[in-house]
Design a protein that fits this description.
Elements: H1 8-15, H2 46-66, H3 72-83, H4 89-96, H5 100-112, E1 116-118, E2 129-131, H6 133-156, H7 158-171
Antiparallel strand pairs: 1-2
């Protein structure tokens, strides 16, 4: 006589550990009433709009930098190193919103690609990061592409570009 199989849900439920003392068992799908989200009028969210616009333009910048061997993160790191030779890993991480460990890893990649020179004597000593001639050449090309994107944004979305100038003026 063939063995009768039980439904998977029953088998999984049977294998669950009993609830710990003082804690109720987690609800099953049968325990949760069917609900719907409250009906609201659609409203404009500036935060969601900013995220959507930002993602679109970040994608365009990524595509423009790709054949230069740069990501937006590498572009930012090179910009910080180029504008402040000798910048510390801690400061580089802070400005880039990454951990110091991630900054070390990213800089190692930039060094391996010949874009940055790291003359740091040893671990724990003050860092001496500098952009190389190759890094400068790549950054010049990257900045030209960024200027083209800035121009496109200003032409296609002049009010957004103007408001971003206002935001920058308030931040910087």
């Amino acid at each position: 006589m063939p063995r009768r199989l039980r439904p998977i849900a029953d088998t999984a439920r049977d294998r669950c550990d009993p609830p710990r003392r003082g804690r109720p068992a987690p609800p099953t799908i049968e325990d949760v009433p069917e609900t719907t989200a409250p009906q609201r009028e659609p409203r404009f969210s500036p935060v969601i709009a900013l995220i959507a616009v930002s993602a679109s333009w970040e994608g365009r910048l990524s595509a423009a930098l790709r054949d230069l061997g740069l990501s937006t993160r590498k572009f930012g790191l090179l910009g910080h190193i180029g504008s402040e030779p000798g910048i510390s890993f801690s400061e580089l991480a802070r400005r880039s919103h990454i951990t110091v460990q991630s900054a070390h890893t990213a800089v190692r990649t930039l060094v391996d690609e010949g874009l940055v020179a790291d003359a740091t004597a040893h671990a724990g000593s003050a860092s001496d990061l500098r952009i190389t001639a190759k890094g400068i050449a790549v950054m010049e090309q990257a900045h030209q592409r960024l200027l083209e994107l800035d121009s496109t944004l200003s032409d296609n979305m002049p009010r957004l570009a103007q408001s971003m100038d206002g935001v920058r003026a308030g931040i910087v």
